[in-house]
Backbone:
Protein backbone atom coordinates (compact mmCIF):
# COMPACT_ATOMS: atom_id res chain seq x y z
CA UNK A 1 0.00 0.00 0.00
CA UNK A 2 2.83 2.43 0.77
CA UNK A 3 3.95 2.41 -2.87
CA UNK A 4 0.56 3.74 -4.05
CA UNK A 5 0.12 6.28 -1.23
CA UNK A 6 0.18 9.71 -2.85
CA UNK A 7 -2.78 11.73 -1.54
CA UNK A 8 -2.64 14.29 1.25
CA UNK A 9 -5.78 14.31 3.36
CA UNK A 10 -7.05 17.47 1.69
CA UNK A 11 -6.84 15.87 -1.75
CA UNK A 12 -8.52 12.72 -0.50
CA UNK A 13 -11.25 14.86 1.06
CA UNK A 14 -11.96 16.59 -2.23
CA UNK A 15 -12.05 13.31 -4.16
CA UNK A 16 -14.56 11.60 -1.88
CA UNK A 17 -16.55 14.60 -0.62
CA UNK A 18 -15.87 13.92 3.06
CA UNK A 19 -14.36 16.52 5.36
CA UNK A 20 -10.80 15.98 6.63
CA UNK A 21 -12.13 15.99 10.19
CA UNK A 22 -14.53 13.14 9.47
CA UNK A 23 -11.84 11.20 7.59
CA UNK A 24 -9.55 11.48 10.63
CA UNK A 25 -12.38 10.34 12.89
CA UNK A 26 -13.03 7.28 10.72
CA UNK A 27 -9.32 6.50 10.73
CA UNK A 28 -9.03 6.75 14.52
CA UNK A 29 -12.31 5.08 15.48
CA UNK A 30 -12.54 2.29 12.93
CA UNK A 31 -9.07 1.89 11.41
CA UNK A 32 -10.67 2.64 8.04
CA UNK A 33 -7.60 4.37 6.58
CA UNK A 34 -3.96 3.22 6.66
CA UNK A 35 -1.78 6.19 5.70
CA UNK A 36 1.97 6.04 5.20
CA UNK A 37 4.43 8.86 5.92
CA UNK A 38 6.23 10.92 3.32
CA UNK A 39 9.91 11.80 3.74
CA UNK A 40 8.69 15.15 5.10
CA UNK A 41 6.44 13.50 7.66
CA UNK A 42 3.13 14.09 5.88
CA UNK A 43 0.43 11.44 6.05
CA UNK A 44 -0.25 10.05 2.58
CA UNK A 45 -3.30 8.05 1.56
CA UNK A 46 -3.62 5.42 -1.16
CA UNK A 47 -6.16 4.35 -3.76
CA UNK A 48 -7.20 1.58 -1.37
CA UNK A 49 -7.96 4.20 1.30
CA UNK A 50 -10.08 6.08 -1.25
CA UNK A 51 -11.92 2.85 -2.14
CA UNK A 52 -12.62 2.16 1.52
CA UNK A 53 -14.12 5.62 2.05
CA UNK A 54 -16.32 5.23 -1.03
CA UNK A 55 -17.43 1.79 0.15
CA UNK A 56 -18.24 3.15 3.60
CA UNK A 57 -20.29 5.95 2.05
CA UNK A 58 -22.34 3.42 0.08
CA UNK A 59 -23.08 1.40 3.22
CA UNK A 60 -24.01 4.53 5.17
CA UNK A 61 -26.44 5.54 2.44
CA UNK A 62 -27.94 2.06 2.70
CA UNK A 63 -28.77 2.79 6.35
CA UNK A 64 -26.00 0.96 8.21
CA UNK A 65 -24.38 2.41 11.31
CA UNK A 66 -20.92 3.92 10.96
CA UNK A 67 -19.33 0.97 12.76
CA UNK A 68 -21.10 -1.57 10.52
CA UNK A 69 -20.30 0.40 7.39
CA UNK A 70 -16.62 0.61 8.30
CA UNK A 71 -16.44 -3.11 9.08
CA UNK A 72 -17.89 -4.00 5.68
CA UNK A 73 -15.68 -1.50 3.85
CA UNK A 74 -12.59 -2.99 5.48
CA UNK A 75 -13.67 -6.54 4.68
CA UNK A 76 -14.24 -5.65 1.04
CA UNK A 77 -10.69 -4.33 0.63
CA UNK A 78 -8.97 -6.57 3.16
CA UNK A 79 -5.99 -7.70 1.11
CA UNK A 80 -5.88 -4.59 -1.08
CA UNK A 81 -5.53 -3.88 -4.77
CA UNK A 82 -6.95 -6.18 -7.44
CA UNK A 83 -6.89 -9.16 -5.09
CA UNK A 84 -9.33 -7.72 -2.54
CA UNK A 85 -12.23 -9.81 -3.88
CA UNK A 86 -10.39 -13.01 -2.94
CA UNK A 87 -10.09 -11.88 0.68
CA UNK A 88 -12.94 -14.01 2.13
CA UNK A 89 -11.71 -17.10 0.27
CA UNK A 90 -8.15 -16.62 1.53
CA UNK A 91 -9.39 -16.00 5.04
CA UNK A 92 -11.39 -19.23 4.99
CA UNK A 93 -8.54 -21.24 3.47
CA UNK A 94 -5.97 -20.05 5.97
CA UNK A 95 -8.41 -20.57 8.84
CA UNK A 96 -8.84 -24.15 7.62
CA UNK A 97 -5.05 -24.54 7.43
CA UNK A 98 -4.73 -23.27 11.01
CA UNK A 99 -7.38 -25.68 12.30
CA UNK A 100 -5.78 -28.64 10.53
CA UNK A 101 -2.31 -27.81 11.88
CA UNK A 102 -3.62 -27.44 15.44
CA UNK A 103 -5.54 -30.71 15.22
CA UNK A 104 -2.42 -32.63 14.20
CA UNK A 105 -0.17 -30.90 16.77
CA UNK A 106 1.90 -29.29 14.00
CA UNK A 107 3.26 -26.22 15.77
CA UNK A 108 5.37 -24.80 12.88
CA UNK A 109 2.47 -25.08 10.42
CA UNK A 110 0.07 -23.51 12.91
CA UNK A 111 2.39 -20.55 13.45
CA UNK A 112 2.81 -20.19 9.69
CA UNK A 113 -0.95 -20.11 9.10
CA UNK A 114 -1.45 -17.63 11.93
CA UNK A 115 1.34 -15.43 10.56
CA UNK A 116 -0.27 -15.41 7.11
CA UNK A 117 -3.58 -14.34 8.59
CA UNK A 118 -2.04 -11.49 10.58
CA UNK A 119 0.01 -10.32 7.60
CA UNK A 120 -3.00 -10.07 5.28
CA UNK A 121 -5.95 -9.17 7.51
CA UNK A 122 -6.69 -6.75 10.31
CA UNK A 123 -6.31 -8.19 13.80
CA UNK A 124 -9.99 -7.59 14.53
CA UNK A 125 -10.91 -9.67 11.47
CA UNK A 126 -8.67 -12.54 12.55
CA UNK A 127 -10.09 -12.48 16.06
CA UNK A 128 -13.73 -12.27 15.03
CA UNK A 129 -13.75 -14.48 11.94
CA UNK A 130 -11.05 -17.05 12.72
CA UNK A 131 -10.07 -17.34 16.39
CA UNK A 132 -13.50 -16.95 18.00
CA UNK A 133 -15.32 -19.40 15.66
CA UNK A 134 -12.46 -21.89 15.95
CA UNK A 135 -12.55 -21.86 19.75
CA UNK A 136 -16.32 -22.31 19.77
CA UNK A 137 -16.10 -25.17 17.30
CA UNK A 138 -13.25 -26.80 19.23
CA UNK A 139 -15.22 -26.61 22.47
CA UNK A 140 -18.18 -28.25 20.79
CA UNK A 141 -16.04 -31.04 19.37
CA UNK A 142 -14.46 -31.62 22.77
CA UNK A 143 -17.88 -31.88 24.45
CA UNK A 144 -18.99 -34.43 21.82
CA UNK A 145 -15.81 -36.43 22.21
CA UNK A 146 -14.64 -35.57 18.70
CA UNK A 147 -11.54 -33.70 19.92
CA UNK A 148 -9.16 -34.99 22.57
CA UNK A 149 -8.10 -33.21 25.72
CA UNK A 150 -4.61 -33.08 24.26
CA UNK A 151 -5.86 -31.32 21.11
CA UNK A 152 -7.84 -28.80 23.15
CA UNK A 153 -4.87 -28.05 25.42
CA UNK A 154 -2.39 -27.81 22.55
CA UNK A 155 -4.56 -25.45 20.50
CA UNK A 156 -5.53 -23.28 23.46
CA UNK A 157 -1.96 -22.92 24.71
CA UNK A 158 -0.59 -22.09 21.25
CA UNK A 159 -3.26 -19.49 20.56
CA UNK A 160 -2.97 -18.00 24.04
CA UNK A 161 0.76 -17.55 23.55
CA UNK A 162 0.28 -15.85 20.19
CA UNK A 163 -2.49 -13.57 21.43
CA UNK A 164 -0.62 -12.53 24.57
CA UNK A 165 2.37 -11.78 22.35
CA UNK A 166 0.16 -9.36 20.43
CA UNK A 167 -0.98 -7.88 23.73
CA UNK A 168 2.45 -6.47 24.61
CA UNK A 169 2.04 -2.78 25.34
CA UNK A 170 -1.76 -2.85 25.57
CA UNK A 171 -1.53 -1.00 28.91
CA UNK A 172 0.27 1.94 27.30
CA UNK A 173 -2.48 3.81 25.40
CA UNK A 174 -3.75 6.96 27.11
CA UNK A 175 -7.43 6.37 26.40
CA UNK A 176 -10.06 4.96 28.77
CA UNK A 177 -8.98 2.17 31.09
CA UNK A 178 -10.37 -1.33 31.48
CA UNK A 179 -9.57 -4.07 34.01
CA UNK A 180 -10.17 -7.58 32.66
CA UNK A 181 -10.41 -10.73 34.77
CA UNK A 182 -11.96 -14.17 34.81
CA UNK A 183 -14.25 -14.91 37.73
CA UNK A 184 -12.87 -16.96 40.63
CA UNK A 185 -12.43 -20.56 39.48
CA UNK A 186 -12.78 -19.66 35.79
CA UNK A 187 -9.83 -20.79 33.68
CA UNK A 188 -11.08 -20.08 30.12
CA UNK A 189 -9.53 -16.73 29.33
CA UNK A 190 -9.06 -16.76 25.54
CA UNK A 191 -12.31 -14.88 24.79
CA UNK A 192 -11.30 -12.26 27.36
CA UNK A 193 -7.89 -11.86 25.70
CA UNK A 194 -9.64 -11.41 22.34
CA UNK A 195 -11.85 -8.76 23.89
CA UNK A 196 -8.85 -6.95 25.38
CA UNK A 197 -7.00 -6.93 22.07
CA UNK A 198 -10.02 -5.52 20.25
CA UNK A 199 -10.52 -2.84 22.90
CA UNK A 200 -6.82 -1.93 22.88
CA UNK A 201 -7.05 -1.50 19.10
CA UNK A 202 -9.58 1.24 19.87
CA UNK A 203 -7.09 3.07 22.07
CA UNK A 204 -8.09 1.68 25.46
CA UNK A 205 -5.55 0.93 28.18
CA UNK A 206 -5.84 -2.67 29.39
CA UNK A 207 -5.03 -4.10 32.80
CA UNK A 208 -5.25 -7.86 32.39
CA UNK A 209 -5.52 -10.06 35.49
CA UNK A 210 -6.24 -13.37 33.78
CA UNK A 211 -7.88 -16.62 34.93
CA UNK A 212 -9.25 -17.42 38.40
CA UNK A 213 -9.11 -13.90 39.83
CA UNK A 214 -10.52 -13.20 43.32
CA UNK A 215 -12.72 -10.11 43.48
CA UNK A 216 -10.43 -8.75 46.19
CA UNK A 217 -7.55 -8.87 43.71
CA UNK A 218 -9.55 -6.82 41.22
CA UNK A 219 -10.16 -4.20 43.89
CA UNK A 220 -6.43 -3.91 44.49
CA UNK A 221 -5.95 -2.59 40.96
CA UNK A 222 -8.43 0.26 41.41
CA UNK A 223 -7.32 3.72 42.47
CA UNK A 224 -9.49 5.77 44.78
CA UNK A 225 -11.77 8.09 42.88
CA UNK A 226 -11.44 6.28 39.54
CA UNK A 227 -14.31 4.40 37.90
CA UNK A 228 -12.73 2.27 35.18
CA UNK A 229 -14.57 -0.37 33.21
CA UNK A 230 -14.18 -3.72 34.98
CA UNK A 231 -15.01 -6.77 32.86
CA UNK A 232 -15.41 -10.14 34.55
CA UNK A 233 -15.91 -13.25 32.44
CA UNK A 234 -17.11 -16.80 33.08
CA UNK A 235 -18.45 -19.61 30.91
CA UNK A 236 -20.91 -20.94 33.53
CA UNK A 237 -23.37 -19.02 35.78
CA UNK A 238 -22.10 -20.86 38.85
CA UNK A 239 -18.77 -19.00 38.70
CA UNK A 240 -20.66 -15.73 39.09
CA UNK A 241 -23.22 -16.94 41.61
CA UNK A 242 -20.66 -17.93 44.24
CA UNK A 243 -19.37 -14.33 44.31
CA UNK A 244 -22.70 -12.58 43.70
CA UNK A 245 -22.49 -10.43 46.85
CA UNK A 246 -18.93 -9.35 46.02
CA UNK A 247 -20.00 -8.46 42.49
CA UNK A 248 -22.84 -6.33 43.87
CA UNK A 249 -20.42 -4.49 46.13
CA UNK A 250 -17.96 -4.00 43.27
CA UNK A 251 -20.68 -2.69 40.93
CA UNK A 252 -21.49 0.06 43.42
CA UNK A 253 -18.05 1.60 42.91
CA UNK A 254 -17.08 0.86 39.31
CA UNK A 255 -18.64 0.38 35.89
CA UNK A 256 -18.98 -3.41 35.95
CA UNK A 257 -19.53 -5.56 32.87
CA UNK A 258 -20.33 -9.27 33.02
CA UNK A 259 -19.22 -11.32 30.02
CA UNK A 260 -19.10 -14.87 28.73
CA UNK A 261 -21.65 -17.64 28.36
CA UNK A 262 -22.26 -17.62 32.11
CA UNK A 263 -23.41 -14.00 32.19
CA UNK A 264 -27.19 -13.53 32.20
CA UNK A 265 -29.53 -10.55 32.19
CA UNK A 266 -30.98 -11.70 35.52
CA UNK A 267 -27.55 -11.78 37.13
CA UNK A 268 -26.56 -8.41 35.69
CA UNK A 269 -29.75 -6.86 37.09
CA UNK A 270 -29.34 -8.53 40.48
CA UNK A 271 -25.74 -7.35 40.91
CA UNK A 272 -26.23 -3.88 39.46
CA UNK A 273 -23.75 -4.51 36.64
CA UNK A 274 -23.76 -1.67 34.15
CA UNK A 275 -23.19 -3.86 31.10
CA UNK A 276 -23.95 -7.37 29.89
CA UNK A 277 -21.62 -8.50 27.10
CA UNK A 278 -23.14 -11.43 25.21
CA UNK A 279 -21.80 -10.73 21.70
CA UNK A 280 -18.59 -12.11 20.31
CA UNK A 281 -15.57 -10.41 21.96
CA UNK A 282 -14.73 -8.09 19.04
CA UNK A 283 -18.30 -6.88 18.59
CA UNK A 284 -18.60 -6.32 22.34
CA UNK A 285 -15.41 -4.25 22.34
CA UNK A 286 -16.66 -2.19 19.40
CA UNK A 287 -19.96 -1.49 21.19
CA UNK A 288 -18.19 -0.33 24.32
CA UNK A 289 -15.82 1.89 22.36
CA UNK A 290 -18.75 3.42 20.47
CA UNK A 291 -20.66 4.08 23.71
CA UNK A 292 -17.60 5.77 25.20
CA UNK A 293 -17.40 8.37 22.44
Residues:
Amino acid sequence: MAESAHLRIGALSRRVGVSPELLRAWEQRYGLLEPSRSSGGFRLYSDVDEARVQSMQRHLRAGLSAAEAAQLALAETEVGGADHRTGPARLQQWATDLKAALDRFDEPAAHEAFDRLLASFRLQTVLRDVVTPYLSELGGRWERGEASVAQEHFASNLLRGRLLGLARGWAEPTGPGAVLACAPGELHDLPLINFGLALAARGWSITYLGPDTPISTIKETLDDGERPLVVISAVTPERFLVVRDELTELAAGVRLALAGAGATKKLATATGAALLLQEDPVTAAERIAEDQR
User: Anything to note?
Assistant: Residues 45 and 127 are 26 Å apart (CA to CA).
